[in-house]
Write a structure and sequence with these properties.
Rossmann fold; two-stranded parallel sheet; alpha/beta; globular; UDP-galactose 4-epimerase, domain 1; binds NADP nicotinamide-adenine-dinucleotide phosphate; 9 strands; single chain
Length: about 300
Amino acid sequence: MTMKSTHDSPILVTGAAGDLGAIGRNLTAMLLDKGHKVRALVRREDERALALRQLGAEVVQGDLTDLTSMHRAIEGVARIYFGMSVSAAYLEATVNVAAVARHHGVEAFVNISQMTVTQMSITETTDSPQHKLHWLAEQALAWSGLPVVTVRPTVFLEGFFLRLAAVGIRDSNELALPLGNSKTSPISAVDVARAVSEILHDPAPHIGHVYNLTGFESADLDHYARVFSEALGRTIRYRNVPLSGWIDTLREFGVPTHVLNHLAVMAELHAQGRYDRMTDDLFKLIGKMPTSMYDFVKLHAAEFTPTEATV
Ligand SMILES: NC(=O)c1ccc[n+]([C@@H]2O[C@H](COP(=O)([O-])OP(=O)(O)OC[C@H]3O[C@@H](n4cnc5c(N)ncnc54)[C@H](OP(=O)(O)O)[C@@H]3O)[C@@H](O)[C@H]2O)c1
C-alpha cells in the first residue's frame, strides 16, 4: 500500500447527494469553502448532482458496492469521507471502498459510524441490523491498516425531530414519537459535517481517533416539547406513541424493513436512557457549541408551521 499526501488532490465525499442528514452534501460545500477540491460521489445523475457541480465539485456517479466505480472515484484522491444511507449493503460498501482505498493508498479515511457502537463489543450487540453492520465495519477498517478516523454521532435532529416529527407538530401540535421519557442528546447533522470538514482539512492529528459527537444538551422529550413551544410561539406537547403502530405507519409509507428494524431499536434504546450521553468532542473539533434544539426549530420553523391551506 502506497501513501499519497498531496494536498492538491481532490477529497472524495461519498453519499454527496444527501437525503436525510445530508452530511455529504453539507461537507462538500464546507470543503469547497475551505479551498479544497472535492470529488462528490452520487448514486445517480439528477438535479442534486447538478447542484453539486454548480457548487464547484467534480461529480462522479457510482455505486459504493461496485468495484469499477470505486476505482473511478478513488483514483487520485488522498482523503476520503465514507458515509451512506442506512442500508443492508452497508458492510459490503464499507469493505469495497476500503479495499479500493488500500489499493490506491490514501492519507485519511473518515468513517461515519454511530454512538451506540461505543457500547458494543465482541460480546455486546443490539438488535439493530445497522448497529451490527457499523460495528463490523469498524472492525474491518481497524484490520485494514488504513489511516482511519471514526466519527460516532448520537441521533440526528434531522431524523426523529424533523422528518419524523414535522407532520405531528404542524397538524396536531404534538411531538409524537415512540422515544419514552428518558433523556437524549440529539445532534444536528450539519454540526457533524462541520466536524468532518475540520478533520479532512488537516487529518494527520486525527488519524486513529474516535470522536463521539453529542448535541447541545441531554434532556427528556417533555423538555424538548417546551423548547418547540418557545421557538414556535404555540404549545407543543410530547406524546409517547406506541412503537408498533408508529412502525406500521412508516411501513405503509414504504420505509424498508432494514431501516424500520433500526429505528425500532433506536426507539427502545432511547426509552432505556442509552442516548443520555454528553461529550465535548464536537466543541474540541469545531470550537463552537452544538446547535441547540431552539435554534434548530427556528431554522426549520416553516416545516413545523401550518400553512393557510392546512388550517
Ligand atoms: N440518522 C441518524 O440519526 C444517525 C445518527 C448517527 C449516525 N448516522 C449515520 O449517518 C450516516 C448517514 O448519513 P446521512 O444521514 O448524511 O446520509 P444521507 O443523507 O441518508 O445520504 C446518504 C447518501 O448515500 C447514498 N447512497 C446510499 N446507498 C448508496 C450506494 N450503494 N452507492 C452510492 N451512494 C449510496 C444515497 O444516495 P441517494 O440519495 O441517491 O439514495 C444518499 O444520498 C449513516 O452511516 C448513519 O448510520 C445517522
